[in-house]
Amino acid sequence: MVKMPPEVKETLEKQKPVPMATASKSATPNVVFIGLCKILDDETIMIADNFFYKTASNLAENPKVSLLCYSSESKKSFQIKGSVTVHKEGPQHQQMADWVHSINPKLPAKAAVIVKVEEIYNAMWGPSAGKKVV
Ligand SMILES: Cc1cc2nc3c(=O)[nH]c(=O)nc-3n(C[C@H](O)[C@H](O)[C@H](O)COP(=O)(O)O)c2cc1C
Fold first, then answer.
1. What pTM value is reported for the model?
2. 24-62: per-residue pLDDT in tens?
């Protein structure tokens, strides 16, 4: 696990929606938009599964994700990669459901997808493109 530096957290918080990539066991990629994404601490991101379909089946087979963010103000962009655990009940599910329902009580709040951040890369164009941040 790694800690997200402040510039990464700021860029992710401003990214709406956040593109998130998963892959099946056979390595077929899939990208979705995430609107409900919350930083829990420097190493942890919570994502609400309201409508995941291919994403849910990919995560069951291969618990790896890549998130992408970009700020046109700061001209910073990062790829955040990590491993997830999926919680359909228990305290993490309750925390996600409370948060989601405070925004929209009609959302299904099926599962909390908890991302533990493992690697961060610079995704801005220029000489540092693709370089590991942490
Ligand atoms: C702007 C936007 C925000 C979205 N936010 C979420 C979200 O926070 N959670 C969620 O489960 N689906 C969200 N979706 C739906 C997913 O992007 C996607 O449609 C869904 O996961 C089904 O695709 P899949 O079969 O590839 O998983 C959002 C879609 C859009 C367009």
1. 0.98
2. 999 999 999 999 999 999 999 999 999 999 999 999 999
Structure tokens belonging to residue 54: 């291919």
DSSP per residue, 53-95:
SHHHHHHHH--EEEEEEEETTTTEEEEEEEEEEEESSSHHHHH
Query: What's the fold here for domain 6-122?
Result: Pnp Oxidase; Chain A (2.30.110)
Q: Would you give the distance in Å from CA 90 to the centre of its chain? A: 20
- Domains of the chain, by residue range, sit at 6-122
Ligand 1 residue neighbourhood (C-beta within 6 Å): 17, 30, 32-36, 48-55
Distance 122 CA to ligand 1 centre (A): 25
**Tokens 């103000």 -> residue:** 73
Q: Which two tokens stand for residue 35?
A: 């609107």
Instruction: Write the CA distances from 118 to 41, 82, 91, integer angstroms.
Output: 13, 5, 23
Residue of the nearest CA to atom 7 in ligand 1? 34
| Ligand 1 atom showing the smallest separation from residue 16 Cα | 1
- Kindly state the tokens that stand for 63: 């618990």
Q: Which residues of the chain have pLDDT under 70?
A: none
